[in-house]
Design brief:
alpha+beta; 5-stranded antiparallel β-sheet; about 40% helix; about 15% strand; globular
Length: about 1250
């Protein structure tokens, strides 16, 4: 083949016009810990920090790269394509450090195998190909799927090798199926697989064998899909007698297997597709599978919390009983206990549990810790149910959809003998499908007849399956390798460069074809069938960004016409290139028997490119033709027709090298590497993005397409600046309404304080984050502003409110400084242009506009007419969409010729944050949320988010220093024969602030480890981590030394040193007598007095002076922990009466007296004030996950944490999810 140059010049370096820089790549968890860091990374200067991070973390080879190389001479291969090996056996090996190394190894390996396979006419063509491919990678014009980045070129560029991993390939010269002896010589570049399964339990190709085959793919980061409809249903006969356990039992096993491999850390959830035909006898159970599993999660979460609440109410009733211990657990005598038991029974707490609590109480336990669960996707609740590790789809035929329309019967067919197992109403099943999609976003729909009417190889069987993201649809046991072009890089000076785009489409078709020839595959069947049919997956990304730059709405006739024409050109060029290669190397082996079918499909594509509404061959559902009159660029229309003319002409002459050439994939990780604003065929998800800085942190930036779109629409530079500032904010209070420099000076702010505020505003999500003691300094806040120190430390304190600013003032200033994150209502912007900036979701707290369900479907339909495979796309639906809306969306998709469809209704997943969780403690806000307008709701939510996040940030950012001279106690004990010394340090209020652990005669390593562990715990305590958290984490840990405990009056056995330490601390500081083996002696501070019963009367009231003196002395000398939250026995009787029992304390106020005595240890209902303070802190720290999720929702993200890096930056990406921080995806690319 002849290869022209478009982006490079002969004799010049491929990177001559690409400037490279060095940067630091760093990815952090939300808590600030570093996930990945690499210094001096060389990347193109135009690349963003996120793109640099993703290539460095995901795609750089981390080991085995020699520091010195030598070439291996190879006969009949040009010298520049000779492969390399380490210079010597002792050559040092390191990792890749430059993006050039990655581009060179990818393009080099493709050119090397391309030369060997005869794809280039001359050496100059091979060199032109090598340079053009490297340039396209460096300039982000296109990118292959992730397995290419991981595997391709490692053997060619560095001589990296290893023993075979059970893979196979078909030799390109002999055509023989061969088992690989090398792990890397033939790379594994395929991301998407479809596998078959036979109705056989343990045989080859059967059910259990499939789990092994899936595991091999999951292990190496690929995705797979399977149609399980051949499996017999439940209660169908088995050959050896008995009944089958049915489809669902086996699907649950496979789901568990996929989840276990995922948890090994090398694959993500949902890299698996499960498909079942609509006539399978188990279809009803399958459709409702995930609905029921989500209901189970809800039940586990609600039930666990109800159990803990109600069972502890029983304990509380027993604790508050003022009588004998025996009577306290007798509901006939203890009325409060009787009421608590009734309350528990009323909500169906099992009677055995109620009885168990009473038994615990009789044995001296004071409370119960019943494990509670939440709705986080990674929580125990979700882990305990099935169906969470796959995307589910059902296959429906035209006959079924017509039966729905006519309200006809639908027969479910047995798999063993083909007889009717059951007859149901088609419409009833369709309602189940709509309800399931509405309730839990599964199953998706695949339109079986539409898929197969566009099938190029029906002589080899029906298309029954797809990959996890459902863009690759072909025969079972085949694979597809994908690549996507970044459409925005072909836009130059407002004009789309169609010639460059066609050139790129041609070269990437060659690249994907070479990849099939050089590849190895995970099974014999896939290796053979991939060689026989050679399916490719060329696609594009950033259509949403391109349309916005052109000033066209995603939901417009013009936008759809541009999308359709670009798709037509890409696939037409790919098929023409495939036919050109077939002319030199021959058509794919399965072509001849499918020739007429394939040419019919090509003619149908060509007919659509001509805009025809009739003349289609063997199509029941007509495709959406190219909209000739609404395309604003007539050149694209002319080219669309021309490339399909060429494809048909060359195909009739030569045949085709590939059975399929194009799909539209989600482009998750590679979309980030190419700095695409939008992925695949998706619209944008937000107008304001949070871009990553090289040194960590983020800054707000308008979507790069917005200024270009505004310019294209005719706005001047000053107007554009104002519109952009309206969205992202001005970042200064200078001329802000309500709160500005002038008004702050009136409150006593000087220039240094105003400067501090201004410096912090750039990254603020809300100005209330900035007005705090850490920005302004404690001295200024308490002195000049006169704010009491205790108010400053109150997590709920709002400084702006304290200064007299109203909610309206704050909102107005917020919009000015931090921006509205939407363009609705922006100055100068005409309402007729709003549609250009519509996104998948409403933008910011004021945005009301978003793309309709039909907008997504019409764009898919416009492109589908020109795609060999299908399109991976989620159709976003608002929360208030109905079940009927879901059904209508599916029906519209079918009527327009779309091959597959997945819906996502906002809030249909339990693991998504719900707005109401934010306002659970605010009745007024709750009322607005239930009955207010959408603007009022948005305002309430925004306020609540700010409140929660402020509390969280305050608590995390402050370390409470210990006093220089402090109280505490030393406890010596022997655990399993080893001496342990525990020393504690307390704050003035008696709360624990530090621990020291020393071991007697232990090895230096173990002693040092325990010592450092104690330091880590101490730092955590001083940062406000509740002691309860440590106790829950470390009690019951098991390791040696362990066993009997001597020398401790409360703890007699321990499973490890840590178990002993935290039992001791829990008993001493938290009064956790449930963790003690012997309850500490003495009265606790919150015990209620039983003076008369014990024959002790309170005869004499203390004088005020002696009471306060006694308390003062006790406060100074006593250690809370040493006393185990009990009053010292020798101090119990003061002036002849039990001071706490007879309420004879100073001023007769027991609350004041107890709080004065040892404030942190007062408990129960008496200590309302103290409990309020400690609870506020605890709540604000434990609310972290919800705050992060909700804040993420406000920023346009999905509100779930990334499984790889933990950041809440997941966005919908086709039918998958993608992390905008580290690039991880839940799909197979």
């Amino acid at each position: 083949m002849k290869i022209d140059r478009k982006f490079t010049e002969a004799g010049k370096d491929a990177y001559a016009d690409v400037e490279f820089v060095t940067t630091v790549s760093e990815i952090r968890n939300p808590d600030g810990t570093i996930v990945f860091k690499l210094d001096d990374v060389e990347v193109p200067k135009q690349w963003s920090q996120v793109a640099s991070d993703v290539i460095a973390q995901k795609y750089f080879r981390k080991a085995g790269v020699p520091t010195a190389l030598k070439k291996v001479k190879e006969k009949d291969v040009p010298e520049f394509l000779w492969r390399s090996v380490p210079a010597t056996d002792t050559t040092e090996k390191t990792g890749e450090i430059s993006a050039k190394q990655v581009f060179d190894r990818l393009a080099g390996a493709w050119a090397y195998w391309g030369w060997k396979g005869g794809y280039f006419s001359t050496e100059d063509d091979a060199r032109a190909y090598y340079d053009e491919m490297r340039h396209m990678l460096a300039t982000q014009r296109a990118a292959p799927n992730s397995p290419q980045w991981f595997n391709t070129g490692l053997h060619w560029a560095y001589g990296i090798d290893g023993p075979g991993q059970g893979h196979f390939y078909v030799d390109y010269q002999s055509g023989e199926l061969t088992k690989s002896t090398s792990a890397y010589e033939h790379p594994q570049p395929h991301a998407c697989f479809i596998q078959s399964v036979k109705d056989d339990l343990v045989g080859d190709g059967g059910i259990m064998d499939l789990w092994v085959r899936e595991a091999r793919l999951f292990k190496y980061g690929s995705g797979t899909g399977t149609n399980f409809s051949h499996l017999r249903a439940s209660n169908e006969a088995l050959s050896g007698g008995g009944k089958s356990s049915g489809l669902m039992g086996f699907l649950k096993i496979g789901d568990r297997a996929a989840g276990a491999i995922k948890s090994g850390g090398t694959t993500r959830r949902a890299a698996k597709m499960v498909i079942v035909d609509a006539d399978h006898p188990d279809i009803e159970e399958y459709i409702n599978w995930k609905v029921k599993e989500e209901q189970k999660v809800a039940s586990i979460v609600a039930g666990s919390k109800l159990h803990e609440e109600k069972l502890n109410e029983i304990f509380a009733a027993i604790r508050t009983w003022d009588g004998s211990t025996e009577d306290s657990v007798d509901p006939k005598k203890n009325e409060q206990l009787k009421a608590a038991i009734r309350g528990a029974k009323k909500v169906h707490i099992p009677e055995t549990y109620v009885k168990r609590v009473l038994d615990y109480a009789k044995q001296g336990f004071g409370s119960i810790e019943f494990p509670t669960y939440d709705t986080d996707w990674d929580s125990e609740a979700y882990a305990s149910v099935s169906g969470q590790n796959s995307n589910n789809s059902i296959r429906v035929t035209n006959a079924y959809l017509k039966a729905v329309k006519d309200d006809a019967d639908w027969e479910l067919i047995r798999r063993t003998d083909g007889t009717v197992a059951k007859t149901i109403k088609a419409r009833k099943l369709w309602e189940d499908v709509g309800h399931a999609a509405w309730a839990c976003a599964d199953p998706g729909i695949q339109f079986h007849d539409t898929v197969n009417e566009w099938h190029t190889c029906p002589e080899d069987g029906e298309i029954r399956g797809s990959n996890p993201c459902s863009e690759y649809m072909f025969l079972d046991d085949t694979a597809c390798n994908l690549a996507s072009m970044n459409l925005l890089t072909f836009l130059k000076d407002g004009k789309f460069q169609a010639e460059d785009y066609m050139h790129a489409s041609r070269l990437w078709t060659v690249t994907l074809e070479i990849s099939v020839m050089m590849a190895q595959f995970p099974s014999k069947e896939i290796a053979q069938r991939s060689y026989d049919f050679r399916t490719l997956g060329l696609g594009y990304a950033n259509i949403g960004g391109l349309l916005m730059n052109l000033g066209l709405g995603y939901d417009s006739d013009e936008g759809r016409a541009i999308g359709a024409s670009l798709t037509a050109i890409m696939t037409g060029v790919a098929y023409a290139t495939s036919a050109e290669i077939a002319g030199e190397l021959g058509a794919f082996p399965g072509y001849e028997r499918n020739r007429e079918h394939m040419l019919r499909v090509i003619r149908n594509h060509r007919n659509a490119a001509y805009g025809a509404t009739e003349g289609y061959e063997n199509l029941e559902i007509k495709p959406v033709p190219l909209d000739l009159k609404n395309c604003p660029d007539s050149q694209l229309i002319d080219l669309s027709m021309a490339v399909w003319d060429e494809a048909l002409k060359l195909g009739e002459k030569n045949g085709f090298r590939n059975a399929q050439v194009s799909v539209i994939a989600p482009t998750g990780t590679i979309g980030l590497v190419m700095d695409c604003d939008t992925t695949g065929i998706e619209p944008d998800f937000a107008l304001v993005k949070f871009k990553k800085l090289a040194g960590g942190g983020y800054f707000k930036i308008i979507n790069q397409s917005v200024p270009a779109a505004l310019e294209k629409l005719g706005y001047g530079s000053a107007q554009i600046e104002e519109i952009v500032s309206y969205a992202v904010g001005h970042g200064t209070l200078g001329n802000a309404p309500g709160i500005n420099h002038t008004s702050l000076i009136g409150h006593g702010f000087g220039q240094p304080e105003i400067d501090k505020i201004e410096n912090a505003l750039g990254t603020a999500f809300d100005i209330r984050f900035v007005f705090n003691q850490w920005t302004l300094g404690e001295a200024f806040c308490t002195g000049t502003l006169g704010i009491p120190a205790e108010k400053l430390n109150d997590p709920t304190f709002d400084m702006l409110k304290h200064l007299g600013y109203t909610r309206a003032d704050v909102d107005a200033a917020n919009d000015h400084v931090c921006g509205t994150m939407t363009l609705e209502g922006a100055p100068h912007l005409a309402e007729k242009h709003y549609n250009v900036f519509d996104c998948a979701n409403p933008c910011g707290k004021r945005g009301k506009r978003y793309l309709s369900v039909t907008a997504h479907i019409y764009m898919m339909a416009a492109a589908q007419s020109f795609i060999s495979g299908a399109i991976s796309k989620t159709i976003n639906m608002p929360n208030d969409a109905t079940i009927e809306d879901c059904q209508k969306a599916y029906e519209l998709s079918w009527s327009l010729g779309v091959k597959a469809n997945a819906l996502y209704r906002d809030g249909s997943k339990l693991s998504q944050p719900l707005a109401s969780a934010l306002v659970e403690d605010d009745d007024e806000a709750l009322e607005i949320l239930e009955s207010g307008s959408s603007q009022e709701k948005a305002a309430v939510l925004a306020q609540k988010i700010v409140e929660k996040v402020i509390i969280k940030e305050i608590v995390k950012s402050h370390r409470e220093k210990m006093p220089e001279r402090r109280k505490g106690y030393t406890q010596k004990a022997v655990v399993g024969g080893h001496k342990v010394y525990l020393r504690t340090g307390e704050y003035q209020d008696g709360s624990l602030g530090e621990i020291f652990i020393d071991m007697h005669k232990e090895g230096a390593g173990f002693r040092a480890m325990m010592n450092n562990f104690a330091i880590a715990v101490s730092v955590g305590l001083q940062y406000g981590v509740p002691l309860e958290e440590f106790v829950d984490a470390f009690t019951f840990t098991k390791f040696e030394p362990a066993g009997m405990v001597q020398g401790n009056d409360s703890i007699k056995n321990a499973t490890s040193i840590l178990d002993y330490i935290f039992r001791e601390l829990a008993v001493s500081y938290l009064d956790r007598t449930d963790l003690a083996h012997v309850k500490p002696s003495g009265a606790s501070f919150d015990d209620l007095g039983r003076g008369e019963e014990e024959g002790v009367s309170n005869i004499q009231e203390m004088s005020e002076g002696s009471a306060s003196r006694s308390l003062e002395v006790l406060k100074q000398i006593s250690s809370t922990g040493y006393l185990r939250k009990r009053l010292p026995q020798e101090l119990v009787v003061l002036q002849g009466g039990q001071s706490f029992g007879g309420m004879a304390m100073a001023s007769g106020d027991p609350v004041t007296a107890l709080n004065t005595l040892v404030p942190e240890t007062s408990g129960g209902s008496v200590s309302a004030v103290v409990m309020g303070e400690s609870l506020a802190t605890t709540t604000s720290t434990t609310a972290l996950s919800m705050d992060e999720r909700t804040k993420a929702k406000m920023q346009g993200y999905e509100g779930e944490a990334c499984g790889d890096c933990g950041n809440y930056t997941l966005v919908r990406n086709g039918t998958c999810m993608k992390c905008n921080t580290c690039g991880a995806t839940s799909g197979c690319s």
